Amino acid sequence: MRAGYVAGGLMALMDAGINAFDYGLAVSASVPSLAYFKAGQRRDMERVWRHELNTAYLVQYKNYPAASLALSEDRPILNIDYLVDEVFRKKYPLSRHRLQNNPMQAFFAATDLKQRKLTFFSADHTDIYSVFKAAMAVPGCYLSTVCVDQQECVDGGLINFLPLDQLVRLPVDRILVFLTRPLGAEHFLPGLLEKGLFYRFFAKNDWMFEQLQETEQNYAQTVRMLQAQCEQQPDRVKIIAPENRLPVRFISRNKKRINRTIDIGYEQVREQEDEIREFLQGQICLWQI
Questions:
Q1: Interior CA angle at 136 toward 158 and 50, to 5°?
Q2: Separation between Cα atoms, residue 141 and residue 190, nearest integer Å
Q3: In which residue ranges of the chain is pLDDT below 50?
């Protein structure tokens, strides 16, 4: 739910007419937001975030016992199938025409479980909704993998929250980064709910424990490197991050907190609108979540 901050920031960029990016890269819950941004479907993005994510159809606390004990793959606490099939596919479908007409190349991250590495799918993928499921299949909250192009996938955040190595391969001269944690924030510490979900599920995949620790360390190192670049080359990297911990941390049905998280991202980008415009005056720009 912290990705609501990014969604709010994207809506602010769209309202300001700041949308001419060459590349975009998104991880986890920001994947659909990047897709709606590329398609120019700002109204649909807001409706999804403000009205569809705080329901018992998506966040099913009643399934916590079954999910935490890994008793059934049919009773997840986070019903990604409902979100993708009912909300994204049926209620607010993406315009393939708009996606294809926007020249920005968009990449969506997921974890290839067999290879234990990050994999990237294009916004031009013929089954964009399966890509959504794969990118958001949080281990423990969603109790199975998602097959895309013969790869068994889960949420890309398991391997890397901030895959800067993928970005440096692209011909870019400026990078605008959205983070959902304050700069200098401590490592993510799961609460009781998350612990119950994660550890039972990870017991079947014991390598994930060590991987999550490594992922957190890599994230902290990458953020420090980006901060150093901001100081040394302010015309190359700009970071947009919340000043304080966001009202929502992980999953929630609290509509007020989710909406406040969205508003914080929106307000922060609008406040920095002139700075962002000035920063993006280079010939090639990259936007990354």
A1: 130
A2: 13
A3: 283-284
Q: Which position has the token pair 């998104």? A: 26
Angle of the 31-39 helix axis to the 4-15 helix axis, nearest 10: 10
What's the pLDDT at 283? 44
pLDDT in tens, 58-117: 999 887 776 666 555 677 888 999 999 999 999 999 999 999 999 999 999 999 999 999
Query: Measured between alpha carbons, how far is 172 from 21 in angstroms, rounded to an integer?
Result: 10
What is the pTM assigned to this prediction? 0.91
Tokens linked to 64:
């916590």
Type of residue found at 82: Y
Q: Measuring CA to CA, how many Å separate 52 from each of 91, 99, 191, 202, 250?
A: 10, 22, 24, 29, 16
Per-residue confidence (pLDDT) for residue 180, from 0 to 100: 95
Q: What is the pLDDT of residue 72?
A: 59
H or E element: which one contains 146? Answer: strand 146-148
Number of domain units in the chain:
1
> For tokens 């009643």, what's the residue?
62
Show the domain range for 183: 4-288
Cβ contact 183:175 at 8 Å: no
CATH number, domain containing residue 23: 3.40.1090
CA distance 117 to 112: 5
User: What is the structure's pLDDT at 284?
Assistant: 47
Could you give the residue ranges of the DSSP H alpha helices within the chain?
4-15, 31-39, 42-47, 64-68, 80-82, 96-101, 128-136, 164-167, 192-202, 207-232, 255-271, 273-279
Distance CA 179, CA 185 (A): 11
